[in-house]
């Protein structure tokens, strides 16, 4: 039989395969709370504008409460032949309250309904992700504080470059996550306008009050153009791009955890709670959560690509293609929730092997820049010449199979007669990091100040 919801001009019903490709209820049921909230706001506006009677409105609002309770109790009879969440809710409402249910859809279309529901859902997803990221930042700050003066090698090209502190390294991620959070907040601002009242695409002839429904749903204002209201999904794309960038940040940190926990590095240890064993090799402690965060980043990026591609060829206004906007967003939100929580857990529990890190910090002539800088400061040498002197010292140490700090004063003076005992003092890892006091630098005093500032910013939110 033809659909009760739109079957007026149809003699026959859809083919089984048509029903299957058309139905979205298996995934868009996740919009139920937003759908019911939107319908309640719409109904309250209809009665306030005298478009429906008070008795009908009371029946509709009561019925929607029952529908919500049924869905939350798991007793709601979801039906695939009713296509989507909107028609499932409305059909059940009709079963519960009869004829007044048919008045709810006055001055509304599923097009503005779904755009409204989805904006509300993405807004909640943004809030959830923001809250999760805040906890991650707190965990990073705690570890950074603990290790504000713990030295480790800083890398470029994954080659030991200059000593840094572990706290400084972790604070780099605090900055990245901070920008991720601000991208989400920014997307939320642009998202927070109400499409409700756009109706199918052209607006409506009924005397609706879009300001009232916008306010009731926590939107800043109604969207200005009805065609735009039902046909853009840029809010979902912004969420997905902010999520993708954040996922890339998490993935890089995850990659570092994989490297740092390897037997070759042994910089950090993860807790038992965030490690798995091997069924054959008893010694193994695998950083599976980090690896999975790295892997799942691909899905989030794929979700962004997939929705961009859905949208790119669509003429205004609504096309059914847009029903396919939801699964990428749901998948990205779920994936981010997992990844952020797992990363927070790993960081909270992480311990640093300070002795190993300190030994590595000095290996590979990482203080060569410090001796060059000393020649500039103390001897007034042009940096390019100082670089050459330091290079010759590295060559000598390398040939002898020792570190820079193991060269005797005489050996150093044979290369540059101006070198004094004071120069030798800059060759330790501790003095190297302590000297990097420039703004944003790795000196422990700077790192501690950066942590304090970050904590203040967080507290002021
Ligand atoms: N399930 C649909 C979606 O998600 C609802 C909108 C249907 N509108 C329509 N004109 N068929 O996009």
UniProtKB/TrEMBL annotation:
Residues 8-302 form the Fumarate lyase N-terminal domain. It catalyses: 2-(N(omega)-L-arginino)succinate = fumarate + L-arginine. It is found in: Cytoplasm. One of its GO terms (molecular function) is argininosuccinate lyase activity. Keywords: Amino-acid biosynthesis, Arginine biosynthesis, Cytoplasm, Lyase. It is an enzyme of class 4 (lyase). GO terms for cellular component: cytosol. Pathway: Amino-acid biosynthesis; L-arginine biosynthesis; L-arginine from L-ornithine and carbamoyl phosphate: step 3/3. Its EC number is 4.3.2.1. The keyword Translocase does not apply. Residues 365-434 form the Argininosuccinate lyase C-terminal domain. Pfam families: ASL_C2, Lyase_1. Its main location: cytoplasm. InterPro entries: Arg_succ_lyase_C, Argininosuccinate_lyase, Fumarase/histidase_N, Fumarate_lyase_CS, Fumarate_lyase_fam, Fumarate_lyase_N, L-Aspartase-like. NCBIfam families: argH. Belongs to the lyase 1 family. Argininosuccinate lyase subfamily. This is Argininosuccinate lyase. It comes from Magnetospirillum fulvum.
